[in-house]
Amino acid sequence: MTINLLNKSAPNSKSDPEFDSEEQLTMSLFPESQNTSNETIRPQFWSRFALSELNHSEWEALCDGCGSCCLIKYIDEDEHGDVDEELVEYTDVTCQLMDCATGYCQHYDTRQEHVPDCIQLTMENLPQMMWLPSHCAYKRLYKGQDLPSWHLLLTRNAVVTQQQMRAANIGVAGRCVSEVGMSDEEMEERVVNWVNP
Ligand code: SF4
């Protein structure tokens, strides 16, 4: 899982049909190198393998960087810890580490030193995270759905993906505020309807 948004100044926005390296393509989305693994990203891995069979690089490549999971949200859990998706409410208030202009986590690599309860999304805890937005690739694949049509793994073009995400009203960049200094009462007034669980 990554929590960064798409990099508006991503260095690579190739639409060259010969550009078919999943690994290069994924790296073009993010401003910092987050994939330090040498694992190979297998072609069409998202449709050929179960989530539990993905290697680290493939797992990371599923994140579209929308940043929605970094928004503060109200979650209703039953006694078993299961989330009622219908009742999840997102605010536009983000974790203190978010750069709200760019949508990038400002300390991604060391985020848990700053925010110890920052959740690392894994195959093990994914079933308890159905509060994730409906477009999130992890949630979609877990539910047996396809990747969203604008996902970089499908478009293979970062600019196209960015444009289509904006058109689909997805992503927090430029429209979120930091939790710093925010009271609980103020937070409750900031529920938004542009994130759908
Ligand atoms: S909601 Fe899903 S796709 Fe969006 S940043 Fe979080 S993990 Fe990545």
Structure at a glance:
This protein has 197 residues and is α+β, with helices and mostly antiparallel strands. It is built from 8 helices and 3 strands.
Describe this structure in words.
- With 197 residues, this protein is of the alpha+beta class.
- It is built from eight helices and three strands.
- The protein has helices spanning 22-27, 45-48, 56-61, 111-114, 137-142, 152-155, 158-167, 184-188, and strands spanning 71-74, 89-94, 177-178.
- A three-stranded mixed sheet has the order 1-2-3, with no helix packed on it.
- The structure holds iron/sulfur cluster (SF4).
- The site of iron/sulfur cluster has 16 residues, from helix 5.
- Iron/sulfur cluster binds at residues 1-3, 63-69, 121, 132-133, 136-138.
